């Protein structure tokens, strides 16, 4: 009788444990595609939201700024918030370095700080965009698999205490004209892109929306290496450095980017985003006359500015910061006060089914 009682108690404990596991898993529902439902919703909403306005964002927008960074000062600062009262609707990050087990990425930002910032931004409903500028694996497939495993492991840590993962738009192998994979042939690049997608699938990555990202080079055509495989977002990057500011060229290039990339994105049912800016700004008319005009004329999912970092004297900023001259602020304020610009405070339901 005692043995029978023990067996029944053990069975009850197993059943209770099993029920507990099921309840925990149900917090982050998986769609038929194998992605989380929030990730699937993001794939749909990032395209639909472009009809309502453009999400304004910045690389490391709530992690670094002029004269501060989050991991050393542990503050809640944000250059955009301090300047104009709004937080970026989209934040951008770089993953390069995680594949080698480093504690900081190639931009010197700790991965721990990135994870904390990602989850904080996700809880507030913001868009998360990550680049993976993968180092050369020298044709070693075992190394490629290990690199991919490390990225997958990190992406899996981007979840809250309830196991709900933050969906991420992943700019996989972004083409900048400098990295080793830019020297690959078109077919070899596309093959590598798809291979990494398969490897991430094998690692059960469920919170990624794939993006094709390319840096615009004046005079050259875009979209030549588009993989056309599970892509939902197209990003084009065009940044001018402070030592090579050419505002007429900037205006011309932005128009050419939109002319080439936006119809291509629409034909492939992709959202189109633009990462851009002029380092140290030069003239704030780039915001009010160049960028705002484009945003009002076209359906652009997001506008991501380059990173603000360092001390004021270094002039490494792409958006105005508190204390910068009015000459560099006026056009920016005109742009962000237009209803086409969407900041975090106005962003609702990016991860919900509508």
TrEMBL record:
Transmembrane segments: none
Keyword Signal: yes
GO molecular function: hydrolase activity, hydrolyzing O-glycosyl compounds
Signal sequence annotation: 1-20
Keywords, alphabetical: Glycosidase, Hydrolase, Signal
InterPro entries: GH (IPR017853), GH26_dom (IPR022790)
Domain GH26 residues, every copy: 37-345
Entry annotated with the keyword Secreted: no
Family membership: Belongs to the glycosyl hydrolase 26 family.
Protein name: GH26 domain-containing protein
Organism: Segatella copri
